[in-house]
Every structure is written in C-alpha cells, then in structure tokens.
Design goal:
The protein has 4 helices and 7 strands, in the order H-H-E-E-H-E-H-E-E-E-E. The protein is an alpha/beta fold. The strands form 2 sheets. It has a 4-stranded mixed sheet with strand order 4-7-6-5. A 3-stranded mixed sheet has the order 1-2-3.
C-alpha cells in the first residue's frame, strides 16, 4: 500500500489545480496510527471557500488508496503564508501563466501593521517576462489573487498576492 503521506501529497488544490496541497503548503501533517490516518491542513485564509473540497478530496483519495479510517483536521495556527508555497509550486505557477508571490520571510510577533496602499513592487509578466505590468483589479478569481495585464505582450494574467 502506498503511504498515506504520499497519497495526500498528490491531492490537487481545487482553486489552483496546477498545484498539489503539498506544493501550496496547505498540507501540514499526515500521520498513520494503526489503520487510522490523521491529516492536518491549514487553509490559505480562515474563510477559504475551498476548505470543504480539500477535506473531501483528501478523504476520497486516501479511501481509494485503501485507508478506511481517515480524519482531516484544520488548524489556523500558525496562519498560512505564501512563503509556504514550495519552490516547485512557484515554478508551476509561473509555467501556467500565474505570477507567483515573492518570499516575505519571517515576521515579527505582535500587531500586524496596516497599510492601505497597494504594494509598489513590479510584478513581471509570467508569459514574456516584461516588468511593465499594470494591476487591473486588486482582487481576481479568489481573494488571494490580483488581476494584471502586461503592457508589452498585452496579455492579462493573475498574480498570487503575498500573504
């Protein structure tokens, strides 16, 4: 039988199906205890509409692999960050025309500073590499994405925002 971890690592994200839950950094832990499998995931944000689908997909894939007692737990602490996206995940996003987030690095404890201004960084076009892109909408198909357009190749694309 294939390990439960290996099965869980292959489950695709329902909103970004070019990434697995492991690529996205949502898959936090997979434990086998006798015949029982306990999976822990952290959604990209607390109101993530795809969390039920993630749980169902994990249960379905693990059950299909022969595991009959599967529990999927959700934890919100620590909060997910785009830094948890694997290097392979960042590459897959760019290869599929989605601008990946930059690494943010460690954060300090305490209150989160409020900044109402959009980030000033340049987001290169994932299709042609041009740094000349424009934000069309701060929110794309999901809250964690922005919609942009390249000024050189004129193609629209989504950008995963740094969280």
């Amino acid at each position: 039988m294939v390990s439960a971890r290996r099965v869980a690592e292959q489950v695709l994200d329902p909103e970004l199906p070019v990434l697995t839950l492991a690529d996205l950094g949502v898959l936090r832990d997979v434990r086998e205890d006798g015949g029982r499998v306990v999976v822990t995931i952290t959604p990209t944000y607390s109101g993530c509409p795809a969390i039920d689908e993630m749980r169902a997909d994990l249960r379905a894939r693990l059950t299909a692999a022969g595991y009959t007692d599967v529990e999927v737990h959700t934890t919100l602490h620590p909060a997910w960050t785009t830094d948890w996206i694997s290097d392979a995940g960042l590459r897959k996003l760019a290869e599929h025309g989605v601008a990946p987030p930059q690494r943010i690095g460690p954060r300090s404890a305490g209150p989160v500073p409020l900044n109402l201004e959009p980030p000033a960084r340049r987001v290169p076009c994932p299709r042609c590499g041009s740094p000349r892109t424009t934000e069309l909408s701060r929110f794309g198909s999901t809250a964690c994405k922005a919609l942009r357009r390249c000024e050189d190749c004129r193609e629209p694309f989504e950008q995963i925002k740094e969280i």
